[in-house]
Design brief:
heterodimer; A: 158 residues; alpha+beta; 4 helices; B: 567 residues; mainly alpha; two-stranded antiparallel ribbon; two-stranded antiparallel sheet; 22 helices; 77% helix; transmembrane (chain B); membrane (chain B); transmembrane helix (chain B)
């Protein structure tokens, strides 16, 4: 009696699937998110943000959009709702202006005089923004990142 | 109706009586005013007294806490002495035997007998069989030595391994020393280290082990740090640990600083907190700088260095003593905090110095920040700072940002019911004008309120009424005169008060202006001094950036080793 030879009729199915696959993005939460936010900012990014008011009191829509895109590209791992609400830094337009902010939601750059309250929860960053030790302040929902000229980050939680 | 004639004498007597009544009324009114004033004074004195009394009670409680802590400290130390005092003999003999062998002044059988007595006296103590093993080793009694070593290992494997690693290193037996060290390393988990690991780290940082063992130690430390770093949230835990450790160095602000701000600014608590936080930069810098620039004076030779370590190993780390040691530490902190129990409890909770088992990085924090309590040598402190510098920098950066964020932008000033705001003390003119207007309004209000009372007007109306009626009746005519006098007296009082009010408010303004100027001057000083302290924040990073762990691992005794190994 002939014995069947094992595995003789095994066929390897090969299918080439060329459909574009959605890349899985792991949402950073808690300590992992904080660790990411603490990492040093790129010098190009710090330089771009420090020139917020170079264009004077009124910034063009394109300029603002460019800056907002830059923020998104600085944090590619973050979901849109995890990006900063805005950025606040010291205003160099001189008296009576004190600070200016880039409001990511409203997509505008605004300059604020002394006593004028910053909207959308960005008022809390005014004090640190005016400190010469920091280039600018990133404002998040429940914390702030104070970024120095060298890109080092200090975190202030609420 | 009968005609009545009133003699001139009668009238003048009535007039005299009226003027006497008037004088008496004046006197009474003055007395009432004086009593009112005295009542006000008494009230404010009473408030002051109550405040002083409360402060006295607080101070008294603090003093009592200190006295109680001092008494307890003595009691705890006595208890440690009574309960574990007989271990002291064993400890002394351990070092004694080694030194006796060095000098060959004691007979071996004397050492043997002494060791056996110690074993009987301390039935649970790990060091007693170590002594037997040591003396058997010296007398070349292999079997007894092995038995004793097995018993010592049974009682406390880790300490025994470390003890013999050091003893064999002292005697130049490198292979045995390495074997004992390996045995010790094998039992260590970086998440749960016992406090005596400081002996190993000290041996490493002071260059007591040979080059091979030193390289092994270096690799071990690195692997521990790597292993711990893999843990989720490890970096954050380190930062928080260091934040607490750095904050524990905060010094209270001298109460004589900025006296007017203290007294007249509701913002003072925040200002004080920020200033103490800013001063912390220099405190931390000086502390680290002192450690890092301290010269390490090596022991005369390896034997001395090992003896010092053995001394620490046998003296400081007996778990049985831990509860008493904790109590001792808490009472030390209560005394340090001048009787403030809550503050001492917080410090004690953050220190974690006297824990049974700690992770390696917490131990590094303890070596750097609480060297006395953790028995760390200067070399170990330096090494701990070098290994932890990244976490120290992160923790300090966050503390700095938090401190800068806590500095009030506007400083309030309160003088009675006047309030003003200044940022940097530069708006003096504006504030003085505002204060002047405020006091002017108060003065006008007081002047408005300084008018004839209802009784004066009634007296005037009654006076006029009775005068008309008094044309026919003498008695009513007299009553009318009294009413007129009451009215005129009121009028004179009002006029007199105008002067008093004006003078009072003038003095009030002059006084308040003086206080305001002094407070603004305090604000200027505060901002300047704060900025000055704040700039010192960067010094810490500059200091720590130059530090590397390699700098702080010495090879002090390698030359000695070369001499010994040539035999």
């Amino acid at each position: 009696m002939r014995r069947p030879i094992l595995g003789l009729n095994t066929r390897v199915e090969t299918s080439l699937d060329v459909a574009p696959r959605q890349q899985a993005v792991v949402r950073l939460e808690g300590m992992a998110l904080e660790k990411r936010l603490r990492s040093k900012r790129s010098s190009a990014f710090v330089e771009a943000i420090s020139k917020l008011d170079v264009s004077g009191v009124v910034a063009t829509k394109e300029k603002v959009q460019e800056l907002i895109d830059q923020i998104a590209s600085e944090f590619p791992e973050l979901a849109p709702d995890q990006l900063p609400l805005g950025i606040v830094s010291k205003c160099y337009l001189g008296n009576p202006y004190e600070v200016h902010s880039l409001d990511a939601g409203l997509q505008i750059i605004n300059h604020y005089k002394r006593g004028e309250v910053l909207p959308n929860g960005m008022e809390k960053a005014r004090r640190l923004a005016m400190h010469p030790g920091y280039e600018y302040i990133e404002v998040y929902m429940n914390m702030m990142c104070a970024v120095s000229g060298s890109g080092e980050v200090s975190i202030i939680k609420e | 109706m009968s005609n009545q004639t009133i003699s001139t004498a009668n009238l003048s007597r009535i007039e005299n009586s009226l003027s006497a009544i008037n004088d008496n009324i004046n006197v009474v009114s003055h007395q009432v005013a004086t009593v009112e004033q005295q009542l006000e004074d008494t009230k404010s004195d009473l408030e002051l007294l109550a405040e002083e009394f409360r402060e006295y009670v607080r101070q008294d409680a603090l003093i009592k806490n200190v006295q109680l802590a001092e008494m307890r400290l003595v009691k705890v130390r006595q208890e440690i002495e009574n309960k574990y005092g007989h271990y002291e003999d064993v400890r002394r003999r351990a070092i004694g035997i080694l030194q006796a062998v060095d000098t060959s002044l004691v007979r071996k059988d004397t050492i043997e007998n002494a060791s056996e007595e110690q074993l009987l006296a301390a039935p649970r103590y790990w060091l007693a069989p170590c002594l037997i093993a040591l003396s058997a080793w010296l007398s070349d009694k292999k079997e007894l030595a092995e038995k004793a070593v097995i018993e010592a290992l049974r009682r406390d494997d880790e300490k025994t391994s470390l003890f013999f690693a050091l003893v064999t290193r002292r005697g130049g037996r490198y292979q045995s020393s390495r074997a004992w060290l390996e045995r010790y390393f094998g039992q260590q988990d970086p998440n749960e280290l016992k406090r005596e690991i400081v002996v190993l780290i000290d041996g490493f940082s002071n260059g007591i082990f040979g080059p091979e063992a030193r390289a092994r130690c270096g690799l071990l430390i690195k692997s521990w740090l790597d292993e711990l770093s893999q843990k989720a949230g490890f970096i954050e835990t380190q930062r928080d640990q260091w934040k607490k450790a750095l904050l524990s160095r905060t010094e209270k602000l001298d109460s004589a600083k900025f006296p007017h701000l203290q007294k007249y600014s509701p913002t003072w608590p925040e200002l004080r907190h920020s200033f103490e936080g800013a001063k912390l930069h220099d405190v931390i810098f000086q502390y680290f700088n002192f450690i890092l620039t301290q010269e390490i004076i090596p022991s005369k030779n390896l034997a001395f260095a090992v003896d010092e370590l053995l001394d620490i190993l046998v003296r400081e780390f007996d778990e049985e003593e831990l509860p008493l040691r904790r109590e001792e530490r808490l009472n030390e902190l209560i005394i340090k905090e001048d009787g403030d129990k809550i503050s001492a409890q917080n410090l004690f909770a953050n220190e974690k110095v006297i824990e049974e088992r700690l992770d390696f990085t917490q131990l590094l924090t303890n070596f750097a920040m609480y060297p006395t309590e953790s028995n760390a040598s200067v070399a170990t402190q330096k090494l701990a700072i070098a290994l932890s510098k990244e976490w120290i920098n992160h923790a300090h950066d966050d503390l700095t940002a938090e401190n800068r964020n806590s500095v009030p932008i506007d400083i309030e000033i309160e003088l009675d019911d006047w309030q003003g705001i200044s940022r940097d003390g530069s708006n003096e003119e504006e504030l003085i004008t505002d204060l002047q207007q405020h006091i002017q309004l108060k003065k006008e209000d007081a002047l408005r309120r300084n008018k004839l009372g209802i009784k004066n007007w009634i007296a005037l109306v009654a006076g006029v009424g009775f005068f008309i009626l008094g044309l026919s009746t003498l008695f009513l005519f007299i009553v009318s005169a009294i009413c007129f006098i009451i009215f005129l007296n009121g009028l004179m009082n009002v006029k007199r008060n105008v002067k008093v009010i004006e003078q009072n408010y003038e003095e009030l303004f002059a006084n308040h202006k003086q206080i305001l100027v002094a407070t603004l001057s305090d604000i200027v000083d505060y901002r300047r001094e704060y900025a000055n302290e704040d700039t010192k924040a960067s010094n810490i990073r500059e200091l720590l950036d130059q530090v590397t762990p390699e700098q702080y691992t010495y090879s002090t005794y390698d030359s000695a080793r070369a001499v010994i190994s040539s035999n």
